[in-house]
Amino acid sequence: MALHRLFQLSSLLGSAVRVTLRRNIGLSAVLFNKAKDLDPVQKLFLDKIREYNSKSKAVAGGVVDAGPAYQKNLSEEMTKLQRLYGGGDLTKFPQFNFPEPKLEEVTTK
């Protein structure tokens, strides 16, 4: 009986150790890969993201790498939309005002 319990306990401990080692090995593999140099495609991708980030900070909310043709097209489209929809500031979200309706109480006989 005691030998049977010892085998059960050892199998439980063995499975717990296996799971823990598997998780630690998986985590250390990820950390090890981050410490190594990235492959060229990943490095190029990260470099482009960093370059775009620096350009977008310089533009401060505008479109990155927008040339004069883009600005001309944007202004033409904005004037077209203002003409179609009656003007107003098209760069801001419209403010809606819904007044509360006046309801009358109806009595039933």
Automatic annotation (TrEMBL):
Entry keyword annotation includes Membrane: yes
One term of GO molecular function: proton transmembrane transporter activity
Annotated SUPFAM superfamilies: Mitochondrial ATP synthase coupling factor 6
GO terms of biological process kind: proton motive force-driven ATP synthesis
Signal sequence, start to end: none
Origin: domain of life: Eukaryota
Gene3D superfamilies, per the entry: Mitochondrial ATP synthase-coupling factor 6
Key words of the record: CF(0), Hydrogen ion transport, Ion transport, Membrane, Mitochondrion, Mitochondrion inner membrane, Transport
Compartment annotation: Mitochondrion; Mitochondrion inner membrane
Recorded GO CC terms: mitochondrial inner membrane; proton-transporting ATP synthase complex
Family: Belongs to the eukaryotic ATPase subunit F6 family.
Function text: Subunit F6, of the mitochondrial membrane ATP synthase complex (F(1)F(0) ATP synthase or Complex V) that produces ATP from ADP in the presence of a proton gradient across the membrane which is generated by electron transport complexes of the respiratory chain. ATP synthase complex consist of a soluble F(1) head domain - the catalytic core - and a membrane F(1) domain - the membrane proton channel. These two domains are linked by a central stalk rotating inside the F(1) region and a stationary peripheral stalk. Mitochondrial membrane ATP synthase (F(1)F(0) ATP synthase or Complex V) produces ATP from ADP in the presence of a proton gradient across the membrane which is generated by electron transport complexes of the respiratory chain.
Name used for this protein in its record: ATP synthase-coupling factor 6, mitochondrial
UniProt organism field: Culter alburnus (Topmouth culter)
